[in-house]
Amino acid sequence: MNSTAFSRKAAELSKQLRLDQFPVYVHPSVFTPAELSKPTLVTYGPGWKNQPTSFDPECLKWQTYLNILAYDYDIVYSNEPSQSPDEQLPYLVTVEKKCLTGEKILKYAKGQDPEKYAPEGDELISGDDKAFVSLVETNIKVATLFYFWCEASNYSEQTFEKYTKSYIWPLDKLIGYKMRSTVIDFLLTKKPILLKEEIYNEASQALQALSNRLGDAEYFSGEKAGYLDAVVFAYLHTILAAPLPNSELRQIVQQHENLVKFAKSLWEQYYSSN
Fold first, then answer.
1. Using the 8-state DSSP alphabet, how is residue 213 labeled?
2. Could you give the CA distance from residue 165 to residue 174 in angstroms, rounded to a whole number?
3. β-strands 74-77, 99-100: how paired?
4. What is the pLDDT of residue 151?
5. Where are the beta strands (DSSP E) in the chain?
6. For the chain, which residues score pLDDT lower than 70?
């Protein structure tokens, strides 16, 4: 049978079986994402006492840095990290519908207008700032996580509610238990034994170093705020703003007047008008 005859036979068979009637009906899309006019940062939130600042320090760090860059973006509060590409918040949804996390957020922002958004050059941070960012994201981060998740009264009365309020019972209990276990597992990679006194003492030393570095200056990064300022602010504001029943870490921060003044100054500059 030549190809012409085969095609004719196939067409006849298709008609007999009524294959030409399929699909009978094509259902419309259940959900079509809206077109974005500008990038959208998805974070935990709103903040303590409904402040525009995220209550999560990692989210607040990127939120603040984009504000420092005067970057034009929208913010969406969503306490559901599983929708993120790496199951962590925050993430930035670009107008091209890409989802970016971590330093990819900054690289995208810089790529939009290198002269405006990359005053520090290609590197995210450079020089002495790297050491202080590391200091914050080790000693102070460990203390902050311990303060919110391992201090029993803080976890049960505030942290649990903030991170799980979008879930119904008993799912909220399961999600809270999982999140707390994840935090504790992370802390154990930094400290084989979680000793409260040691953790807070190391945080106190880190805060003293930051206080010495800041001195009477307005910013850590020079004449204008930079990435280090966003990192420090994220942790200071989170600690100072959270109405936790156990306020031990807050009291340690409050011993450094210049750090408290710094945190208030950045909040007034980048959030008080929101």
1. H
2. 12
3. unpaired
4. 96
5. 40-43, 74-77, 91-93, 99-100
6. 1-27, 29-34, 111-126, 274
